[in-house]
């Protein structure tokens, strides 16, 4: 289900990211890393880029 959440955010770029992340975090109980991935994907980065950024953080 968490993968579907990220896909949903990737396709729904017109939704306010900040509001969206708060709603998703409450609904799916996402970890901080998962929230970061959703932020990055919503910003248009590929999942591979997200992985590299998370490794650095």
Structural summary, described in words:
With 57 residues, the chain is mainly α. It is 75% helix and 0% strand. The protein has one domain. It is flat. This is Spore gernimation protein GerE. It comes from Salmonella virchow.
Largest pleated sheet: none
Question: How many extended strands?
Answer: 0
Helix content: over 70%
Structural classification? mainly alpha
Strand content: under 5%
Unreliable sequence segments: none
Distance between the termini: 24 Å
Radius of gyration (Å): 10 Å
H-E string: HHHH
Mean pLDDT: 59
Question: How many domains in all?
Answer: 1
Instruction: List the total number of helices.
Output: 4
Please outline the helices and strands.
Elements lengths: L1 H10 L5 H12 L3 H11 L4 H10 L1
Helix pairs in contact: 1-3, 3-4
